[in-house]
């Protein structure tokens, strides 16, 4: 099969022919229809997040079941499916508590070593040498996924566009529903409205937020934010974002501020727009070692909660998400603004790195 392989950091991905992968017990082989283009991949490509090389990136996919391994239940060849980036093992301490977002095997085996849970990859070159997997390694024609991370798509959802349910929408749902515990009637600010930020806006609207303030430096992204549910927009390259949010909220601040970029300055921005007793939910991934200076006095005296959010809880949240999206909770077509072929993968990630993509782009092998 063809796959986009990262052989060296800060070098283009290489389109190569490698061996077709095969699923082992409790795994599913998915013929990839689409894979999302995500900033997390960029961090690996730039060497900002350590990951073994060579590897295949791409961690949110949609496709059809091509083969099932022994022990797989509820899935058959030909099923249309979506696969989120957190692939729970189902048996570790955190999975047993329903906290799939903290799965120990996913982090220790996959995120640190590029392996699945028997300690090996499923990707090999023609000479037998190993290629490591970032999640399922979705920038390829086929991907092997542990079956607990494979979900049937409702019939009314489009196959290609549904790929973004695996990270952009999945990450946003976890932030809004679980970590923020957003309640109907609350106000929110979303700092940085790219692929994840736009989905935070949509989930916040679905779950009952009455005031949704989008903050970004690009007018075209803010236009999309308005279409998808933002009640107010602030271009922080043209005005003081903190002052603007305070003016909108009559000097009070918002109940919840989401930060979806992973930069110290935007985390501070989120901290400064939240009201006393409010929550700051940090979603954006930053290069390893990045830190931020927070006013501890205000955090303590005014009861500000700073919460990290990595993703949703796969087995619990994905079925609910799919039901909600099938009823119109998210506008997938409006969120996806660019589509590339696998051979154009470097063009897609270059555009993402330059901040040119509004919403989400997908790769279609």
TrEMBL record:
GO molecular function list: oxidoreductase activity; zinc ion binding
SUPFAM superfamilies: GroES-like, NAD(P)-binding Rossmann-fold domains
Keywords noted in UniProt: Metal-binding, Oxidoreductase, Zinc
CC cofactor: Zn(2+)
SMART domains tied to this protein: PKS_ER
Any Pfam family the entry gives: ADH_N
TM segment ranges: none
Keyword Flavoprotein: no
Domain of life of the native organism: Archaea
Domain Enoyl reductase (ER): 8-363
PROSITE patterns: ADH_ZINC
Entry keyword annotation includes Oxidoreductase: yes
InterPro entries registered for this protein in UniProt: ADH-like_C, ADH-like_N, ADH_Zn_CS, ER, GroES-like_sf, NAD(P)-bd_dom_sf
Coiled coil: none
CDD domains: Zn_ADH10
Family statement drawn from the similarity comment of this UniProt entry: Belongs to the zinc-containing alcohol dehydrogenase family.
Name this polypeptide is given: Alcohol dehydrogenase
Organism (species): Caldiarchaeum subterraneum
């Amino acid at each position: 099969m063809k796959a986009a392989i990262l052989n060296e950091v800060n070098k283009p991905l290489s389109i190569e022919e490698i061996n077709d992968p095969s699923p082992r017990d409790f795994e599913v082989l998915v013929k990839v229809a689409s894979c999302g283009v995500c900033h997390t991949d960029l961090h690996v490509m730039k060497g900002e997040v350590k990951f073994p090389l060579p590897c295949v990136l791409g961690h949110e996919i949609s496709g059809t079941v091509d083969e099932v391994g022994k022990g797989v239940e509820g899935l058959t060849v030909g099923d249309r499916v979506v696969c989120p980036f957190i692939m729970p093992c189902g048996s570790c301490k955190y999975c047993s508590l329903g906290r799939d977002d903290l799965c120990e095997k996913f982090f220790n085996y996959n995120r640190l070593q590029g392996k699945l849970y028997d300690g090996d990859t499923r990707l090999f070159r023609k000479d037998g040498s190993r290629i490591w997997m970032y999640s399922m390694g979705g920038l390829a024609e086929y991907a092997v996924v542990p079956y607990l991370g494979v979900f049937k798509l409702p019939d009314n959802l489009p196959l290609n566009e549904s790929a973004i349910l695996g990270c952009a929408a999945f990450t946003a749902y976890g932030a809004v529903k679980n970590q923020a515990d957003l309640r109907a009637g609350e106000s929110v600010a979303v700092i940085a409205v790219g692929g994840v930020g736009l989905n935070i806006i949509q989930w916040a609207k679905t779950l009952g937020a009455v005031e949704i303030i989008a903050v970004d430096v690009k007018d075209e992204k803010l236009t999309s934010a308005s279409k998808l549910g933002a009640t107010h927009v602030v271009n922080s390259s043209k005005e003081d974002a903190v002052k603007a949010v305070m003016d909108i909220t009559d000097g009070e601040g918002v109940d919840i501020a989401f930060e979806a970029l992973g930069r110290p300055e935007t985390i501070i921005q989120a901290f400064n727009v939240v009201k006393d007793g409010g929550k700051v939910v940090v979603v954006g991934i930053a290069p390893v070692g990045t830190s931020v200076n927070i006013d501890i006095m205000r955090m303590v005296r005014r009861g500000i909660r700073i919460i990290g959010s990595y993703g949703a809880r796969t087995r619990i949240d994905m079925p609910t998400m799919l039901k909600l999206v099938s009823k119109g909770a998210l506008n997938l077509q409006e969120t996806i603004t660019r589509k590339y072929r696998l051979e154009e993968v470097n063009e897609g990630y270059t555009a993402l790195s330059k901040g040119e993509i509004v919403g989400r782009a997908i790769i279609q092998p």
